[in-house]
Amino acid sequence: MTFHKSHSKWSANRVDWSDPDLEALLRRSENWKLDNRGAFSPQDVQVHIGWGASGGRHAVLVWERDQALVLETNFPIPANEHVRIDRPTPTGVRSVWGTVVEGREGYREEDKAKGIHVHWVHVR
């Protein structure tokens, strides 16, 4: 039995960005705001801002995977700021260190009402 590759002029990786249907789809989706916070059980944590920070501030860990996490706070944290996140465990406190990659005011109505800021943190 012999298998032959198809040599069609259309490659699976080629996209015609000028296609009117694709342009219409992209226009409809350009204002979408994706938010994955509902898929993780929120956990109260303390966030310490800067390397020499002594006092922590309340935050909520709302998403975590591999070397990334998302925090909700009621205050802004600048991008590139170093943070330490302390979270309670059954045996004490677990700390992780990271850098704020991006932060913004929350998009959800309840975020706006509570003055919530959402921060993406890269964990070291």
From TrEMBL:
Protein name: Uncharacterized protein
Organism lineage: Bacteria, Pseudomonadati, Pseudomonadota, Gammaproteobacteria, Lysobacterales
